Amino acid sequence: MGNDTSMASRGVFITGTDTDAGKTFASAAFVHALRRGGARVVGMKPVASGCVPTPGGWRNADALALQAASDPVPEYALVNPVALRDPTAPQLAARAAGVTVTLSPLLEAYAALAAMADRVVVEGVGGWLAPLADGLDQSDLVKALDLPVILVVGLKLGCLNHARLTARAIAADGGRLAGWIGSTVEPGFPDAYVDLVRAALPVPCLGVLPHAPGADPAMMAGHLSAP
After folding, report:
1. Domain 5-223 adopts which CATH fold?
2. pTM, 2 dp
3. pLDDT, tens digit, 9 for 90 and up, residues 24-42
4. Which terminus of the chain has fewer Cβ atoms in its 10 Å neighbourhood, N or C?
């Protein structure tokens, strides 16, 4: 899978500076931004904890948001191949469920999504160094698919440190940071601080999302530029 550059080039991996950086909102908005030119774009949440039971099976709110933003709309099992019940770290949720998470099903789901779309936006869990499972880091998935990485920076006090540390960690793991998106966690966050992040990160800013709880990601896509 990692050698299939024609497939991998169609994807991008979204990570964040922390758990509540706004990755899902930014990922869904980025899906819509990519769709503006008429491309077929789908979202993916390979591993999700904090799922609820439904008649169709376990469902996660983040994965459902990505599914709703997608066109075409994939079946849920492809968007979120590993759905875990407990709202905690995926490692702990998998242990509680007696589930062993491996790379192969994630790669298979990605391949199916890539076959139906022009682009695949893959959202990770928590921050970059939060494992997907015991013995499985997010960098393992990124390397296997050879995906560029976009960093969502939660704009709040301390974000400069978190952004710089994350950029260094991605590089240390052999990842390719392609850009970053600002997600305004604290309303009224000063522009001067955002400018510091722009200067500190070695990649372009793809846009800054305003503080807009409950907003439609499609309406927020105008704040983003899609490379």
Report:
1. Rossmann fold (3.40.50)
2. 0.94
3. 999 999 999 999 989 999 9
4. C
